[in-house]
Design brief:
Layout lengths: L35 H19 L26 E4 L2 E3 L9 E11 L2 E11 L4 E12 L3 E11 L4 E12 L2 E11 L4 E4 L3 E4 L5 E4 L1 E5 L4 E11 L3 E11 L4 E4 L3 E5 L2 E5 L2 E4 L4 E12 L4 E10 L4 E12 L4 E11 L4 E5 L3 E4 L6 E4 L2 E6 L5 E13 L2 E11 L4 E12 L2 E13 L2 E7 L3 E6 L6 E6 L1 E7 L2 E15 L10 E14 L5 E7 L3 E6 L32 H8 L5 H7 L1
Antiparallel strand pairs: 1-3, 2-3, 3-4, 4-5, 5-6, 6-7, 7-8, 8-9, 8-10, 9-12, 10-11, 11-13, 12-13, 13-14, 14-15, 14-16, 15-18, 16-17, 17-19, 18-19, 19-20, 20-21, 21-22, 22-23, 22-24, 23-26, 24-25, 25-27, 26-27, 27-28, 28-29, 29-30, 30-31, 30-32, 31-34, 32-33, 33-35, 34-35, 35-36, 36-37, ...
Length: 579
């Protein structure tokens, strides 16, 4: 959809991923700065020009009008020649300082020609006042038209007024007040003006400056750039009509059909649709997601964007924030990723979940549903739950979060570990967690060496109100428990084995009932008779030193964690023996 001059609003659209990922959007921008120094120089030049014109009143008196000599050198410095006029007249009773010219009036200064219907010509100062159908031309590169022209020869300043139109190759400038310094080839307007170039970029402002040699245009006050893709509002703008590159140095808003951009520094190539933004620029996409970065690059033709340095994405629709050192987005393929201290923050629940991975990715599956992945060295923290794994994936098609390779989850004094942990969500709330290939649960009780332990071929946990209310273990069940006595002491250890087990829990995760079937074997051993090896099931390991302790700790990947992920799964031999 193209953007016209009256279209300024954006329409929110819902982003669907559980942990919003950067879909860098992309943008197109412009920049500018009207130069106060240059403007003051212009006013100074105009003042000198006025003085030059007024000096014509002091020229020597003449008794008759003498035409310009046809054979004279037309390239004399600062010399203006009268080339043609239908009528030449002078009235000594009015003034003897100028000639009155009417009908097809033509002047020449070097390779510049000036045309008008009538004029006052001050020969001594090479100045003139021209009226009606005023036109200035210089070769085939410059044409200026207006209703009135005041030219001050000593300062080489042309003041053009009313319906001014300057055409310089592919650029057109429209204004009512233009001062043109012929020597420097610089034009100024100061009563509103508009520049249009060959790329259909229309730039308007209260004040402006255009350099014909460099093609640089400077704009000031109420600057407005509009084309068929973007619209920009600012107070300072610099734009080159040859390269079609705009540069931003002041607070600027850029509007398009896909996003709104807030920036104070950057550049935008209106010809190639490439953009680079700096100084914590902010992009707000049409679905309400915001992107902030120290540097943002975007190519609209390719639909690709990058963000570098303290990148931050906020998705208020899904209550998710994503940040990192670098982010990439391909809109056409609808894929994106973030790296370098990449972190996702999810705050839909009462406590915020903090998630880190070396790389976070988002893409669409075969059914065009979103998939979010995190790898490697994944760690997460929430007040009531912490965990880690080597990689993680969430698929919108089945609403299952999958944790792979040495997956570990802690909650309170409990630790659940397995080669794979799958958690099913309903409306962002977990309802079932499954460990399909041998799981191990441990609960720290009593002294440091006492842990209730449970392992089995498959574990399934059922949640209610964000708490586990039932735990099923199917196949090769092994249990080791330290029952607490009435006086809160521990004096025995219980070992049991069976094929199936079910644990029912009360609120606050208190065990209500344990059921094992069909056959149960086991024994009870007093602690004072138990050997140390009897206090732990095979493959037990308490990973408390790897547990994230606060939101910032998710970035701390220790050597111990690296060694863990490099090691094989401790339950692998159990899977082989059960086949």
């Amino acid at each position: 959809m193209s953007r016209g001059k009256d279209k300024h609003k954006t329409v929110p659209v819902r982003h669907r991923s559980i942990t919003a990922f950067l879909c860098l959007v992309a943008l197109a921008f412009v920049y500018g700065a009207f130069s106060p120094v240059a403007w003051s120089q212009n006013k100074k030049s105009v003042k000198r020009g006025v003085v030059a014109a007024q000096s014509g009143a002091k020229a020597r008196r003449v008794s008759r009008i003498t035409p310009q000599i046809p054979g004279a050198n037309r390239f004399q410095k600062n010399k203006v020649f009268l080339e043609n006029a239908d009528v030449l007249s002078a009235d000594e009773r009015v003034s003897t300082d100028y000639q009155v010219l009417k009908g097809n009036v033509q002047f020449r200064r070097g390779d510049m020609y000036m045309y008008c219907d009538s004029a006052y010509f001050y020969d001594d100062t090479n100045s003139l006042d021209a009226f009606g159908n005023v036109r200035m031309t210089q070769g085939d590169t410059l044409t200026v038209t207006a209703e009135v022209l005041h030219y001050y020869g000593e300062d080489e300043v042309a003041q053009l007024r009313y319906n001014v139109r300057m055409e310089n190759r592919s650029m057109t400038l429209l204004t009512d007040s233009l001062d043109y310094e012929i020597q420097s080839n610089v034009g100024y307007y100061f009563n509103k003006g508009t520049i249009v170039d060959s790329e259909n970029n229309e730039l308007s402002s209260e004040f402006g400056r255009y350099e014909l040699d460099t093609k640089n245009a400077e704009f000031s006050s109420n600057v407005h750039l509009i084309n068929d893709k973007y619209e920009m509002l600012t107070n300072l703008l610099n734009y080159n009509t040859q390269t079609h590159i705009a540069t931003i140095t002041e607070e600027t808003v850029v509007l398009s059909d896909s996003n709104t951009v807030y920036t104070s520094s950057g550049w935008y190539n209106t010809q190639t649709d490439e953009t680079s933004l700096f100084d914590r620029s902010v992009v707000v996409t049409k679905d309400g997601t915001t992107l902030t970065g120290d540097t943002v690059y975007y190519n609209q033709v390719k639909g690709m964007g990058e963000a570098r340095g303290n990148m931050l994405i906020t998705d208020t629709t899904h209550n998710v924030m994503l940040d990192g050192d670098y982010g990439f987005c391909d809109e056409n393929e609808q894929r994106s990723f973030a790296t370098g201290r990449a972190r996702a923050r999810e705050f839909s629940e009462k406590d915020t979940l903090y998630l880190h991975g070396d790389t976070l990715r988002s893409f669409l599956d075969a059914d065009s549903l979103h998939v979010l992945t995190a790898s490697r060295f994944v760690r997460f923290y929430r007040k009531d739950m912490q965990g880690l794994c080597d990689s993680m994936a969430f698929n919108e098609s089945d609403s299952i979060l999958r944790m792979y390779h040495h997956a570990i989850v802690w909650s309170g004094s409990r630790q659940i570990s397995g080669e794979e942990i799958n958690v099913h969500f309903v409306d962002s709330t977990a309802d079932v967690a499954r460990l399909p290939n041998y799981g191990f649960m441990a609960e720290h009780v009593g002294e440091d060496t006492y842990y209730n332990q449970l392992k089995g071929k498959e574990m399934v946990a059922y949640f209610e109100n964000e708490e586990v209310r039932r735990l099923d273990v199917n196949g090769n069940v092994e249990v080791l428990l330290f029952p607490q006595e009435n006086d809160s002491t521990y004096n025995k250890v219980v070992n049991a084995e069976s094929s199936y087990l079910k644990i029912d829990l009360k609120p606050k995760q208190e065990i209500d009932k344990i059921t094992m079937w069909p056959e149960v074997t086991g024994k009870v051993t007093p602690l004072y008779l138990a050997k140390k090896s009897q206090l732990y099931l095979d493959s037990f390991n308490w990973y408390g030193s790897l547990r994230p302790v606060d939101p910032d700790d998710i970035f701390n990947v220790s050597d111990e964690m690296r060694e863990l992920f490099a090691a094989p799964d401790p339950n692998a031999r159990h899977r082989r023996s059960s086949k």
